[in-house]
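A sample follows:
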Amino acid sequence: MHFLKNFKKNIINQNITLKESLILLNNLNQKCLIITDKNKKLIGTLTEGDVLRSIVSGAKFYDRIKNFINKNSFYLNIDKINEKKSLNDFNIPNDISLIPILNDKRKIIKVLRKSNLFNKQKYNSTLNAQVIIMAGGLGTRLKPYSSIIPKPLFPFEGKAIIEHIMEKFDKYNFKKFLISINSSQKIIKVFLKSKNKNNVDFIYEKKLLGTAGSLGLIKKVTKNFFVINCDSIIDCNYRSILNYHNSNNNDCTIVVAKKKIDIPYGIFELQKDKKIKMKEKPSYDILINTGMYIFSKNILKFIKKNKKIDMDKFIEKLLKNKSKVDLFPIESKEWSDFGQLSSFSKKN
């Protein structure tokens, strides 16, 4: 049996926020928190998946975790552990990674790891992921300037946007880049070479292939790979996103930003019974596509070579083919979109 060393790092109280719990989970190999009351008695558990699903379902990052705890979490009594020699003697659910061991007063005295799921070698290998930057667009919304300078080279805080994107990935040790460009954007290749970016390969679009079509030109890619638009800068833990993608066996993980939209007008809604309901200046929490994705390479079979397809249509195709598509929410302040000229004036 493998008991977790320093298990107290995984034990928290129920008064912290969902955002705080995500920060704690990012720093733990075992993506599970164990919640206790003021008397140190077990309340339940909270996994990274629990947190993210609650946010996607409408919870806010600064809501307290107490309403989202799994209070039916699996645990074992120390007396039963002493009676058995192997975990195989217990009927443990497959999705359990940590098992609290309780005394007769429901206090945690040990935490058991179900298996060596987080072996360091395996952990590192699953986090080996290539980064594909989609830079082949025409930058229509940035004209007339994009007629002279390709959108990825637009300056922001003293650097080109594409430099910011690459540095964010490099921070988390993702260093293999594949950049999709069209035949008129060879200046991007020259620019990156001048910046000594030698860990970069290119996909050349001979014709416009849409926001996803160039993926059909990939010849070799890692088991899982990032895709990001060249006008999105995202400031969050990329390893946590890839961990989530791997642990949930996703085919596609879409990074979305949770944003509150205030409507400055009274609105009317038509109910199913045709009755009219009025709402005065309502607010809505929505999930915005940030332009960052993680794909498993098996999805490439759904893209035809040299066939134009936009990302929204491609995602619809994955859903139609029963691929596992999931969302990873971040705060809106962690995402900067540079798709319009007005974005630059707001950031500077």
In short: Residues 161-171 form the longest helix (11 residues).
